[in-house]
Amino acid sequence: MTGETARAEDEAANRPETTAPEPTPSTALEREHAEMKDRLLRALAEMENLRKRTEREIADSRLYSVTSFARDLLVVADNMRRALETVPPELRNTAESGVKALIDGVELTERELLKALEKNGVRQFTPQGEKFDPNVHQAMFEIPDATVPAGSVVQVVQPGYMIGDRVLRPALVGVSKGGPKAAPVVSSNDNDNSP
What we know:
It is a single chain. The longest helix is centred in the N-terminal third of the chain and has 40 residues, at 25-64. The strands form two sheets. A three-stranded antiparallel sheet has the order 1-4-5. A three-stranded mixed sheet has the order 2-6-3, with no helix packed on it. The protein has helices at residues 2-14, 25-64, 67-86, 89-94, 97-119, 188-192, and strands at 122-125, 137-144, 153-158, 160-163, 166-169, 171-177. Strand 4 (160-163) and strand 5 (166-169) form a beta hairpin. It starts with a helix and ends with a helix. The protein is 55% helix and 17% strand.
């Protein structure tokens, strides 16, 4: 058996090895370099996304930070408008100089208040004659009027306010009922196809 064992050992020694070759140091370094480069690029992209997101949040914060304060001031603006509307036009023309000065002072204060709100991104809108939009209007009642298209704002009870592109307070409106349907909006492309 010693002869057979020696022959088996010789054959085993002459057979080529089937194990994977050891990676060379340069291949391992290239792989590690590629992994590190990928990690670096991912980290840079994440930082850029974080920077953009932070800039958006800061811009939104600046624009909408006065929302609560502005909402509180709208009540003051409404009360000033109501006070001015209680004075009939005849009384304004025949009022004594002291009363006239008071009325002028209230009007000036209201204008300055609205100007200060607008300076801070809050703008007033009055949708008289526009089509009713539940996103920015709040319908208080319907008015039967056959001369106006159905769904149109025919009376504004209280103006609305926007801050940026958001509704701060919807306009309180009366909406027409029973008139003709509003005509569909025709785009400029539709006119090009006419004979």
